Amino acid sequence: MIYFSKWKIILVFVVCTLGLAFSAPNFFEKKIVEGFPDWLPHKHVSLGLDLQGGSHLLLEVDVASVMTEHLESLIDSIRSELRKARIHYRGLGITGGDASVSIRESGGVTKARNLLSKIDNDTNISVDGNTITISFTERAWVDRRNAALQQSLEIIRRRVDETGVREPTIQRQGDDRILLQVPGVEDPERLKALIGKTAKMTFHLVHERNIDQDYARTPPGARWLPNQDAGFQGQPKKILIKRRVMVSGEDLVDAQPGFDQRDNQPIVSFRFNARGGKKFGDVTAANVNRPFAIVLDGTVISAPVIREPILGGSGQISGNFNVTQAQDLALLLRAGALPAPLTILEERTVGPGLGADSIAAGKIASIIGMVLVVVFMALAYGLFGLMADVALAINMFLILGGLSVLQATLTLPGIAGIVLTIGMAVDANVLIFERIREEVRSGRTPINAIDAGYGRALTTIIDASVTTLIAAVLLYIFGSGPVRGFAVTLAIGIVTSMFTAIMLTRLFIVIWLRRFRPSVLPV
Questions:
Q1: Which residues, 6 or more positions from 35, have their beta carbon under 8 angstroms from its beta carbon?
Q2: Any idea where the domains of the chain sit in the sequence?
Q3: What kind of architecture, by CATH, is found in domain 197-348?
Q4: Which fold does the domain 6-52+352-516 belong to in CATH?
Q5: Answer CATH for 68-141 from 3.30.450.20, 3.40.50.300, 3.40.50.620, 3.30.1240.20
Q6: Rounded distance, CA 244 to CA 438, Å?
Q7: CB-CB neighbours of 170 under 10 Å
Q8: What is the largest CA-CA distance in the chain?
Q9: What is the pLDDT along the chain (523 residues), one digit of tens a residue?
């Protein structure tokens, strides 16, 4: 254990140098760090919500609307199948959470039942006289609810990532809720607007009777929708569109903000995949000189007239919106539509002032803890204790550098993990120094005592560190939020503490031993 090969000395030097280099940017303001040469580290430690402030939102997914949408889709399928089979029916609709239909002729009930049983394997069918009721199974409802929640999680994550926010916390809570924590948000209202929009876009043909603007009359297969540009250049309040979706926003693959070359107004350019591009081309080719409505979340955002077939699978949306609105719309379309509306159940905003107070308190706790440990080690173990104190200081730089390189989020519990690491970092040295004392009392020479002390304590140190590291890993895997923040700093601290105790402090002692060759150990 006394012999130190050159490669080990180089390794210790390189690791310590890198730790100091990667931790250095945290001691300068970001403006100063931006002026550093490109080859120098630039990353600061990423602070969590409780340290740098931000938004905490608890969202509820409107699962009921998802179920209603599936029922409406089921009813459309029932209508289509019955019409194809020329079975006369009436009263088709939703009754008590199920789809029901009455068959006019008694002889057609059996035929209709057999036909409708093939529509969806996840449905149950019951017959009461001439009335057929089709209901989804409990398993089907659970699967659709879980799918809607999982899809909502993914789309929220895409939208938040598009804003450039680092280390957001997005996780499921219960059967229909999502927890969202976004640190460092400068405009929480814009974030809520981006998260809250369903962003479901569809393309519809405008109905011929739209020019009448008679809101009291709604032709079959049509509906009135509010017009986003109402009042702008004489635009009407509502637009009558055909219910049939000609092209769905699900086929969009890209959307980017830009400016119209003719009037320099903000626009959003979009592009479809192959399937959507073909549909879009067919619709525009068959409806030249007719208005084509673009509907977003139940509002017509634009209804341009098709001047010529659009066969390239791309187009643009123009309307009465500014640059920020165009950017947000493009972001929403790129991220995809939510399967159901979201409701904000709980909202908390953590100010940066509270985070600054937490950081200051953490610094004070860390300094007090380190001073007490340094004094204890110096008094208890003399020169060897001072060597351990130097290694402890370098250990703090290694932890800070590790957090910066990994861009792991530092939270308030994470600061507690660092304070705990300060005490744990010298545990290995205490074990080694006590073992060396025992060897000296038994009459060994300084070199033999140090060699035996490190050799016999090494197994205990590794066992204790590995078991603690396993606990930290499990906390990170199964924990969330504050628990993860604590686990991150604890795990990094364990690794750096083993390095400084087994390698760095031992190197200090070996260098001192070779230079002074003492007859008595100051421990």
A1: none
A2: 6-52+352-516, 68-141, 197-348
A3: 2-Layer Sandwich (3.30)
A4: Multidrug efflux transporter AcrB transmembrane fold (1.20.1640)
A5: 3.30.1240.20
A6: 87
A7: 18
A8: 112
A9: 566 778 888 888 998 999 888 888 888 777 787 777 777 887 888 777 667 777 888 888 888 888 887 888 888 788 888 888 888 888 888 887 888 888 888 778 888 888 888 887 788 888 888 888 888 888 888 888 888 888 888 888 888 877 766 667 788 888 888 888 887 776 677 778 778 777 778 889 998 888 878 777 888 778 899 988 777 667 788 899 988 888 887 788 888 888 877 778 888 888 888 888 888 888 888 888 888 888 888 888 888 888 888 887 887 877 667 788 788 878 877 777 777 788 888 887 766 555 567 667 777 877 888 888 888 888 888 888 889 889 988 998 899 888 888 877 787 788 888 888 887 778 888 888 888 888 888 888 888 888 888 888 888 888 888 888 898 889 888 876 678 788 888 899 888 988 888 888 888 888 888 887 877 777 6
Q: Counting beta carbons within 10 angstroms of the beta carbon of residue 360, is it exposed (0 to 12), middle (13 to 18) or buried (19 or more)?
A: exposed
Q: Which two tokens stand for residue 476?
A: 């990170």
